[in-house]
Amino acid sequence: MQTILVAGAGKSSIYLIEYLLSNAGRNKWKVIVADGSKDAVYEKIKKHPHAEAAVIDITKAEQRVPLVQRADIVVSLMPPHLHIHLAKDCLVHKKNLITSSYISPEMKAMDEDVKKAGLMFMCEMGLDPGIDHMTANQIIHSIERVASSITSFKSYCGGLIAPESDNNPWHYKFSWNPKNIITAGADGAQYLQNGKVVNVPYEDIFDNCKKIKVDGLGNLAYYPNRDSLRYLDLYHVPDIKTFIRATLRYPVFCKGWNAIVSLGLTNQQDSFDTANLTFAGWIKQKTGFSAGELKKHVLSKLNGEADDKLIAMLDWLGLFEDKTIMLGKVSSADIMLHLLLNKWEMAPFDKDMVVMQHEVEYVHKGSKIKMTSSMVIKGESRDHSAMAKTVGLPMAVLTKLILTNRITMPTGVLIPNMPSVYRPVLTELKHHGIEFTEVVE
Hints:
By secondary structure, the protein is an alpha/beta fold. It has helices at 14-22, 24-27, 38-45, 61-70, 83-92, 105-108, 111-116, 131-145, 178-183, 231-234, 251-262, 279-287, 294-301, 308-317, 332-343, 386-403, 419-430; strands at residues 2-7, 29-35, 51-55, 73-76, 96-99, 120-122, 149-161, 189-193, 196-200, 210-214, 218-224, 242-249, 272-273, 329-330, 352-364, 367-378, 412-414, 437-440. It has three domains: 2-127 and 386-436, NAD(P)-binding Rossmann-like Domain (Rossmann fold, 3-Layer(aba) Sandwich); 131-253 and 348-378, Dihydrodipicolinate Reductase, domain 2; 271-330, no CATH class.
């Protein structure tokens, strides 16, 4: 019997675990689900005969290693900084690994050793990163096959709230790891525009976000996502003139979040004793308030870029309330996360929405052509979200393909940019409603 170790039973794991368990009987699999939360594990496996629960501290080798040793493949949905523990174990005990997170420098440094061991460490195998890589390379390779020259590639993706569940002034709710929202853009971003490298510091990431049109949804705003340049070689487009990967939000969100960043409310390095500190008191300290009306003071701190609508958005979050925070000694980022966990929580039957769009410009036989490839998927509920589906299913499908020997397994620390991986994965994802519509102009 083959054994799969799934590390992580959080928000994005439900479709992954359900898929593996639905295929466990015919393939004679044992699926071990490991997490620090007993409730999360048992909620996901629901006494399935082919499932096994493991409530562990993933950072403790004595609890983690025996599970890795038992596994034929390890699938990790742990927070990004914890993947390395599993990666080192997988290398020692000769196990293949799949994660949904960006390749970290520590993981990248393992590439040669992973190749020598004949192992596959497939990273960035979720939504974004993941489905974006697979569909982008599918498009690029198809264009290259007809001897066309690609001049521009723009890729956008966002996890949003579906219109029917959108009932707050920010037009946003959490459908994935909330902490990632707080840290979004913190390292700045860079991309290629008309042959020139554009660097965007954190404080400018959300300022004056540009917009794109998505069929059926209208205009969405986008901000650049991390370092787009590192994908030029991975996508094999070193001579392209414009290349950007970006995150989608509703336009008003970017305006509001730009104010949050400008006020320093996502700072992870400062410290406040919140035992007797109110939210309004925190804002006063962050903005140097001395006298007068706090909301007008905040307006002045935003250099005239704020208006009554924006102040109403900040007010809705509870930033001006005389309510004691009581979190102990924490950073501004911690306080902000505490507020948002209550305000942006999805209700049980709320629906989220995942939007991905690629815009490609190329020259074919002297003619300029633009292709737009779009995907819009809505979730079923808070638990069965579009985000969980699009993050979890690519990992699950690849796991099945590897264990059933249906693909030739690549080796090394990789992203899914090779046809041998993306073709069969994308084919099966279509059967689950994850597919794109293309328009050529």
